Amino acid sequence: MKNQSMIDACLDCFSACENCATECINMLDENHLRCISLCRDCAEICALCVKFEQRNSEFKQQLMKLCADICNACADECEKFSDDHDHCRECAETCRKCAEICMAY
After folding, report:
1. Which of 15, 63, 92, 94 has a Cα-to-Cα distance from 22 of 20 to 30 A?
2. How many domains does the chain have?
3. Measured between alpha carbons, how far is 77 from 68 in angstroms, rounded to an integer?
4. Running along the chain, 105 residues long, what does each successive block of 10 average in pLDDT?
């Protein structure tokens, strides 16, 4: 049985990370380079988690743990800018939620 809450959390995180990375790129501020990199990594692993869940991969639990680690790293970085940028605040919040759900998986 597919875990719909995990799928939804990963898709929400994917979307928030893609948006945050795009907004940070458009700012042309090199202080945001790590944020962009982590958002891109986070978006990619969230998409991969959904794929692994959909095909019931035998490695999905290991991937969920790595996803949670990357989500938390992304949230840590985005939180540095969350007071000044709504997209970073929203991304951090979404990443934290996704990490929590993936860790419980």
Report:
1. 63
2. 1
3. 14
4. 86 98 96 97 98 95 97 98 97 98 91
Give the residue carrying structure tokens 């809450």.
5
CATH number at residue 8: 1.20.1270.360
Terminal Cα-to-Cα distance of the chain (whole angstroms): 13
Say which residues have a Cβ less than 8 Å from residue 16's Cβ, sequence separation at least 6. 90, 91, 94, 95
What are 37's two structure tokens? 């990199």
Residue range(s) defining the domain that contains residue 60: 4-104
- At residue 38, the pLDDT reads 98
Angle between helices 4-27 and 33-54 (to 10 degrees): 160
